[in-house]
Known about the structure:
Blueprint: H1 2-7, H2 9-29, H3 36-55, E1 58-61, E2 64-66, H4 70-82, H5 84-90, H6 110-129, E3 141-143, H7 150-169, H8 175-178, H9 183-190, H10 195-220, H11 227-245, H12 249-266, H13 272-292, H14 300-313, H15 320-333, H16 344-350, H17 357-361, H18 371-379, H19 392-426, H20 430-445, H21 455-472, H22 475-478, E4 482-484
Helix pairs in contact: 2-6, 3-4, 3-6, 4-20, 6-15, 6-19, 7-10, 7-11, 10-11, 10-12, 10-20, 11-12, 12-20, 13-14, 15-18, 19-20, 20-21
Amino acid sequence: MNKYFGALRILLIPLDISVILLLCIWLFTTPTGLNSSVGWTCITIFYLYFFMFCVNFARVRKKLPISLSIEVSFSLFYFLLFFGPYQSDLLGGLSYSISKFLPNTYPAGANQALLAATIGYVAFHLGTVLPRKVYPSGTDQWDENPHAYKAFDWLFSFILFSSMAIFKILGLQSSDVDRYSDAANHTQRAQQSNTIADGIYNIIILFCILALSRLVSRIARGQGLNFAHWLMAICVALWSVMILIQGDRNNFFMIALAALCGVGTFKYRVRWPVIVVMMASALTLYQAVEILRMMPEPSVSAFSDAWQRHANQGNGDSSLGNTTATLRATFEITPKLSPYAWGYYKLVGFGGIFPFIRGFFITPGAGFVTSADALTYFMIGPSAGWNVGSNLLSDIYMDFGLPGIIILMTVTGYFVVRVRTTIIKRGMSTKRIFVYMVLAGTMTEMPRYSLDFPVRFLVWGFVILFIYEKLFLGSFRREQHQTTLSK
């Protein structure tokens, strides 16, 4: 099937471009509010392109089609945020304009938001079909000596365990956990958190994905796990459960998706019945943690109580609707109330690659530093005490407008395919598996964040592995060769 779509590439490229142009014209002429013709057209277009992603199985290994590809996992969350609420409304379910969090959900911008989301999704697909398809050969190639990371695994397992232990012993707490508390506890907890705690917390999240990439590399190669690997696995599992109980569902799902997509790409096929069940379970868990983060103190018993309360209440309005509303608000705010930033938000975001550098150059009172700052200011006011966040499309639009959405979403799709193509052409290795797994974890949740969301994890992890290879591999690098996966 993937070769069939490869042959259609010459037709899909002009088709995607034509659809994007027609949708752009429609966006500038569409009426306010939610029009059923706009809604169903956009939702239908999404389903058609999602179907192409689902049946056009990507592969890194010839005998292992990837059902849960990065494109598919990205699409699932993309739909949940940008199409799901409108589909529910059109089918007579919960209204897209209802929110228990926001005083104004900007319902007039529904048509624009739907069309912009569809334009972005088609542009993403265009990026995935631009590069020529590369298919894996019959033999799995490894661009890495099988014993190259033996010392790294032992050293890194100790570092991972130690960093987690130090974080807990010192009583540090990240703002990723703070913001899940209710308003009464937010101020008290915010005083206990600081930039250093946030930095260490993010590094531990990175270490978890890096550890998972080593585990996936081992099992994909048919090698057994030693004590160091089991220690890494236990540490990642414990840390994931801990942050989930504390209410940090986003980082939990990022780690979980990185693991699932990594295993499903390099070792075992994850079939669609499993994906459907896990998606339903994830939504239930997501909503249960929504309740948990409103409780005074996180604990195992509080988590159990939140799960039970969600089971009794069922699905309803959630904070995911905030993200949907921010895209609608974007067209009211930019450029009418706040001008285009012309790349400033991206510059600040990508500056996060360098630890603490933003604190030196951005002073308090410097104005809007991120698209989330601008959205928060106009949607709920500067004294609300919490942040509405941003989303992938708003973050791009508030910098570069609609042309930015088209160009940058196309580049994003292109980059995803190029990462997979590089693995096929140059062989599997720890570094490339790590990059793939980071993309899988971060890009799934990127619709709720910003375009630069994956960059810091990619760069920091890649630098760690690069330094190890340069300084410690020695003869392994000089004798690096491709080996065949043992059957």
